[in-house]
Amino acid sequence: MVVNNPETLAEVEAVFKRYETALVTNDVETLDELFWQDERTIRYGGGESLYGVSEILAFRKGRSAAGLERDLDRTVITSFGTEFATASTLFRRDGASGKVGRQMQSWVRMEDGWRVVAAHVSIVDEPS
Fold first, then answer.
1. What is the pTM of this model?
2. What's the pLDDT tens digit per position in 108-119?
3. Across the chain, which distance is largest between two alpha carbons, in Å?
4. String of b and e for 109-128 (b: at least 16 CB within 10 Å)?
5. Which of 26, 19, 100, 107 is CA-nearest to residue 63?
6. DSSP class of residue 63?
């Protein structure tokens, strides 16, 4: 298995950037598209544990569009072979002084493109 094949890595970096743009602009249609449309998809959020695409889609529709802008830090994307990758990043938001967000995603190449199959988002106190 090749780790960080340049072509695969470039594809995942591009789809991660597309996801990030959709997130901060509240482009729900693109966010929904980029998650695997399956009841085995998991998303753990800051205050929710979502099992299956139905719960994820319902969450997206009910989420406020306010305050989504953020700055990323220490983003690491790693591809394993040509079909699987992880994306991990820290993020900070204005108005959330002393807090840092952590986001991890597992991406899989499906027939219709790269899709998130599992995600975890949490907010913790900024380390001293």
1. 0.94
2. 999 999 999 999
3. 44
4. beeeebbbbbbebeeeeeee
5. 26
6. S
